[in-house]
Amino acid sequence: MAKLTLPAEEWMYRGHAACPGCGPALAMRLLLKGLGPRTILAIPACCWTVIATPFPTTALAVAVLDNPIESTGASLAGLRAAADALGLADVTVAGFAGDGGTADIGLQALSGMLERRTDAIFVMYDNEGYMNTGVQRSGATPQGAWTTTTPVAGTRRGKREPKKEIMEVVLAHHPSYAATANPAFPEDLVRKAERARAARGPRFLHILAPCPPGWRFSSEETIALGRLATETGLFPLYEVEDGVYRITRPYGTLKPVDEYVRAQGRFRHWTDAEIRELGAQARAGWERLCRRERETAAVARPPPIPLTA
Amino acid sequence: MIEIRFHGRGGQGAVLASELLAQAAFLDGRSPQSFPFFGVERRGAPVTAYARVDDRPIGVRTSIVTPDVVVVLEPGLLRTTSVGDGLRTGGLLLVNSPLPPARLEAPDGVRRASVDATAIALAHGLGSRTMPIVNTTILGALARVTGVVSLEALGRAIDRYVPAAPAENRAAATDGFASVRLGDPAAPSANGAARIPFAVTVPIPEGPLARLPSSSIRTGSWRTLVPEIDERRCTRCNFCWKYCPDDAIELDGRGYPVLVLDACKGCGICAEVCPPHTIAMVAASEGP
Ligand SMILES: Cc1ncc(C[n+]2csc(CCOP(=O)(O)OP(=O)(O)O)c2C)c(N)n1
Ligand code: SF4
Ligand code: SF4
Question: Cβ of A2 and B237 within 8 Å?
Answer without folding.
Answer: yes
